[in-house]
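Lab notebook, design round three. We kept the backbone fixed and only want residue identities now. Task for the bench partner: fill in a sequence for the structure below.
Input structure tokens:
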């Protein structure tokens, strides 16, 4: 079908690019995003998403990620693009937007702590709740966003409460009966296959469809470079600029990008995505060299021999085998899929 984008929406999108890439002041995160876009990095946002974001008005946005793809930076950029007040008469955005962004890694917390962080709690609601506390859903303003990282790892009970927030914009503090209102937006990220999780009974279907009304599949670093090879120089320049400053970083970046092209090749897979690229640049800066991490491939016969000789325990064999598979496929999600394990088990073995 024909894209539903009028002239006013397009003007807003273009004005947004001018605003983000030329805004001289702002928070460090704002400046970092501006630097990435200015250098040609995160170009997939320019090409695919920013044109639509200023004219979309939805409650939630879901991001599907490979590991190490800079999800929080992109989530912040998306959050800002939605809430910068655009005035068509002025042809631009006002400067009085709020940097209200509340990130929460759901895989790192227990269900009780997740509820407390998101919804708040009453005194005595659980051990350690010594005073009433407002959660992020309560303090987040209408111009803000709550970022739910690793949404695919959250248990069913939390999914139900988040579904209520998305549907009715209401919630209750833990241990309280008073209904409160959420006025902001929700951005969520996961590298799980949520459709497969639904089939396995680990993710609620109604929550999926409410959350994923707008779903962005973010490309890996390798996919981005295949689509726009020039982005490598921009990313190297961004990392070098943070380490050395703009002027010296720019000179070093040219040399580093040339080294990467010559020694790793234009088709290097970058299994660690942006994190590996940053590690590569740091190694080139300190040692003048970078060797991608590798795990020695061990055959089934070798594993059996090591077990029979008592040199390794069964748990150590499983750990090393998981590391071997991860080194080949590049991501925790794909490793978990191939070994039929959950992500937490894979992470523990890595």
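Proposed sequence:
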């Amino acid at each position: 079908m024909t894209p539903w984008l009028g002239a006013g929406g397009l003007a807003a999108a273009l004005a947004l690019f001018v605003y983000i890439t030329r805004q001289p002041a702002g928070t460090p995160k704002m400046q970092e995003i501006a630097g990435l876009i200015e250098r040609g990095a995160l170009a997939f946002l320019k090409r695919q998403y920013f044109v639509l974001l200023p004219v979309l008005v939805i409650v939630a946005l879901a991001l599907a990620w490979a590991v190490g793809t800079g999800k929080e930076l992109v989530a912040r950029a998306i959050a800002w693009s939605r809430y910068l007040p655009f005035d068509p008469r002025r042809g631009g955005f006002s400067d009085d937007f709020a940097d209200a962004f509340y990130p929460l890694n759901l895989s790192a917390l227990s269900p009780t702590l997740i509820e407390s962080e998101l919804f708040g709690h009453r005194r005595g609601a659980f051990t350690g709740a010594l005073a009433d506390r407002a959660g992020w859903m309560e303090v987040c303003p209408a111009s803000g966003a709550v970022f739910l990282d690793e949404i695919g790892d959250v248990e069913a009970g939390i999914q139900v409460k988040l579904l209520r927030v998305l549907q009715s914009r209401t919630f209750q503090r833990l241990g309280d009966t008073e209904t409160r209102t959420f006025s902001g937006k929700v951005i969520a990220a996961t590298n799980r296959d949520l459709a497969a999780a639904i089939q396995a009974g680990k993710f609620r279907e109604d929550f999926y469809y409410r959350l994923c009304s707008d779903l962005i599949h973010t490309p890996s670093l390798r996919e981005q470079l295949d689509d726009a090879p020039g982005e490598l120089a921009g990313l190297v320049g961004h990392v070098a600029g943070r380490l050395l400053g703009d002027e010296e970083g720019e000179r070093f970046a040219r040399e580093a990008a040339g080294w990467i092209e010559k020694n790793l090749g234009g088709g290097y897979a970058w299994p660690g995505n942006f994190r590996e690229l940053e590690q590569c640049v740091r190694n080139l800066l300190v040692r003048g060299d970078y060797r991608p991490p590798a795990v020695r491939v061990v055959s089934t016969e070798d594993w059996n021999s090591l077990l029979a000789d008592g040199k390794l325990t069964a748990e150590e064999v499983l750990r090393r085998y998981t590391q071997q598979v991860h080194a080949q496929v590049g991501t925790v999600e794909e490793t978990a899929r191939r070994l039929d394990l959950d992500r937490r088990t894979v992470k523990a073995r890595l």
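Keep this in mind before ordering anything: The mean pLDDT is 71.
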